[in-house]
């Protein structure tokens, strides 16, 4: 059972690299969506069946694999943009940094004092690595949509860590967090749409009128 | 009864969405905020016991924040009626609905005793503020909105990770897993120290960025500068309190564990750094709304310093939270009026406001004196108590730096405010429609009256409430 979970987690890690290394936005969105679905199936593998867990599984898959990607793809279509151009941190450096962070995550996680039932699981290193990759994308890209994707990767990392707590967290909290995430992406999508109308671009480095001189 | 605090504004939001007419829709705001104020007052007098599962309760800390927020929101909603009548061309459906949803979310922050629920409500306040900051629909406001959304979302995501760490520390320590505040405080000392430590740091960074503590304050000047004055007042006086309350919950857990002193040390440092940042950026600020944002950074810094000092300063810190939100209300509302009257917020064009808008300018001047800690206004009392507590504890460096920064900030702020209020009106000014009128002057005037009264006399029930709240934080007061 757990070996399957570990394989899915490795896949999650690979998806991080796919996002770090590509300039195509629609592809990145799909990657993050697939990662969301993988994330959603994990609780079913790690925890015994219960209504609580099945609710979490269904809602995560629905929100992260369905609704959020649809919202972002729509924003991409409206802004008429396909690629990220000249990011602050290039693709090759991003990949190298991503690899560095991933290996650091493994070293770091091995030293963490985990509960006995969680020893040897890949969840913690995968969560840390995904979180860091999210940060990299968030900091390293210019386009507003890429930044949203970075934020989503980060959230995925946090949710991965949350898996350790799945039977400890009340359903309401999980559902509320997901709802907040969904509304957040919705609002960001609208803002992106307005940015592209106002500046005829969604390059956030153009948002510089408010710099302190 | 408790749920009325959350549901009533939501009902108002739905109603305001349904009203088709711009002019009539505005009236939904004062009706529901007055109702909310009445419910809050009733709850302050007769507090119901905690809900059976322990998720919902109004403790003294919550009461303080509820009081400040409800009063401020009522004043702002009364002001909104006057303000929006000048801006009827711009659709205000989203504004009215978002304001009420935001009131509902802030109330949920106040009454939740479950940290997960509190997090959800806090994130909801962040999201509802985004359309409010973007009310003016121009390039500058969209930039501010984007920065605000991104920084606050990431900050609050980090706080979620901190909460997960806190929950995990209970698992590792083989305790019953819970994010309920009473349980966490009870078990605080037994939690796994490593995870608990990490949790506190992440929570401090997360809630700190929402609160605008330096160096996590970078979104503040933009958001405060571009949002309408009314929204700025709620951001600086209301939302700051919610983020602070979240931080106070963490503080409660920290104080119950062995981490208390370290947490306090970090808060003290961040507080002083915030004041230093404010002192530097306040000088030569040519946009008076941005200047107010730095003033907000300063005052969350002051509160953080008070929390860092602990003991007797906690009482003063909590009092300062209330004083700050009331005074910030006056500042933002009156400067919103001046902004309308000149159609500019640059000190280059805005001069001699005392001639164009005598009431608003006088209020702006009075609130400036109040916020910089001049007697007889309320912030003087709380700032004085904090300084005297710092020296009383023998912490001369903190006390000295605190006074130095206050002095620098006074000079910096005066060099912007005084020309705006007193200077000569520039000859070739744009003609504008706005002049002082009762609906936009009376609400901030009432608030200023409150600031003055609180500076001269703190009612006994409020004093008792402040003492009770300080005791929850481990103060000896």
From TrEMBL, chain A:
Keyword list, A-Z: Cell membrane, Membrane, Transmembrane, Transmembrane helix
Membrane-traversing stretches: 52-76, 88-109, 121-139, 148-166, 172-192
Cross-referenced InterPro entries: HyfE-like (IPR038730)
Primary subcellular site in the record, as a coarse category: membrane
Subcellular location: Cell membrane
Protein topology in the membrane: Multi-pass membrane protein
Protein name, as recorded: Hydrogenase
Provenance organism: Geomonas propionica
Classification lineage: Bacteria, Pseudomonadati, Thermodesulfobacteriota, Desulfuromonadia, Geobacterales
From TrEMBL, chain B:
Protein biosynthesis keyword on record: no
Residue intervals of the NADH:quinone oxidoreductase/Mrp antiporter transmembrane domain: 112-398
Coiled-coil residue windows: none
Mode of membrane association: Multi-pass membrane protein
Keywords: Cell membrane, Membrane, Oxidoreductase, Transmembrane, Transmembrane helix
Name of the protein: Hydrogenase
Pfam families listed in its UniProt record: Proton_antipo_M (PF00361)
Top-level division of the source organism's lineage: Bacteria
Keyword Oxidoreductase part of the UniProt annotation: yes
Localization per Swiss-Prot or TrEMBL: Cell membrane; Membrane
Main localization, broad class: membrane
Residues passing through the membrane, by range: 26-45, 66-86, 92-110, 117-136, 148-173, 194-217, 229-250, 262-282, 302-322, 361-381, 401-425, 437-458
